[in-house]
Amino acid sequence: MVQRKRKKIMVEKVFNKLMVNRIDKSYLKISWQIDDKEEVSIYWNNKPIINGNEKFLINIKENEVILREPCKNERFYFILKCNGYKDDIVSEVRLPLEKLVNFRDLGGIKSKDGKKVKWGVFFRSEELKDLGKNDIEYIESLGLKTILDYRSRIGATLKKDTSIKGAKYISVPAFSIGKELESLGEGLEENFDILALLKSPKVIKAIGNPVTFASEMYKRMIFNNKAYKELMMLIQNTGNLPIDQHCTQGKDRTGVGVAILLLALGVDEELVVKDYLASNKYRKIVNDEIKQSIEKSKFSKEEVGMLDIVMKVREEYIRSSIKAMKEKYGSINMYLEKEYGLTEEKLQKLKNEYLY
Fold it and tell me: Membrane-spanning residues where (predicted)?
């Protein structure tokens, strides 16, 4: 019997800790880690794809480089190539907008199987009201097909999103505050907007500990939620993408929607939590300004302290959501199937489509 020679399977290495950080209005730092001292070639494209149309920027043997942005007021992506390594794509996670501080691309987040979420497909943000010309131009360069607004009917009507060319606008409130708080009146929004709590002394008294209250709200949001059902339906049709999902500040209702999406794509819970908590980093300057303004007002120290809690996201909030999924259904996958009809087959289809 003749023994056949086995073909050697060449396994491509991958870039590790690949990221882009903005230094100022014009310059960005790209950094990465590789096992070898091979030369890395960097290109750029205004689409998150490697199609032969990418434009060459530089060859370098270091693990980081500072480059001037290749174009202004338009989304762009860097492509890194290196002998023996899988070509990779990277861009800024937070979009460099003038008014919005928490508009982010979910691209590059790793799944459990080592793949990454595709760039330029899933975005998250705060409300898109009163945007200037430059921000509109930049956002329109994303090619958005859908904007999913989680705010209440009242919030979405009073603070209308700026119209984005080519994007279908869908409004589905993500949370009902419940009859026990609606009965308190005093203009509390019908949907979860945690900053609205400070408007009513009665509400503050009724909810008690704000951390406990918020955790309970997070548990409620993940079940029988029309907004998140809409999200999971939309992403099953590539014609609806790219999509931006948002609420008022882009942290609570949006944070839960993004968590569900990432879990469906097979992202590890720890990375889901990490993305969720990043809102604190991106909103820090805005939160500090709000706090300083409130401290000069007539609010009591207790109310200012509550504001400091509710302006930020906390790990226990999103952990309470994930824990509730498992407690009711036994596993994340069973939660996704029972709440959104996402069978193993459908989940695999999503991963095949949106991971690279």
Answer: none
Q: What is the DSSP letter of 109?
A: P
- Rounded to 5°, the CA angle 91-261-98 comes to 40
Q: What is the pTM of this model?
A: 0.90
CA count, 13 A, side-chain hemisphere, 116: 20
CA separation for the pair 235, 168 (Å, rounded): 14
For 336-341, the CB contacts below 8 A with 24+ separation are 336/232, 336/260, 336/263, 336/264, 339/222, 339/223, 339/224, 339/225, 339/228, 339/229, 340/228, 340/229, 340/232, 340/233, 340/264
**pLDDT band (50, 70, 90) for residue 195:** low
Quick: pLDDT tens for 300-344: 776 676 777 778 999 999 999 999 999 999 999 999 999 999 999
- H/E stretch holding 30: strand 27-33
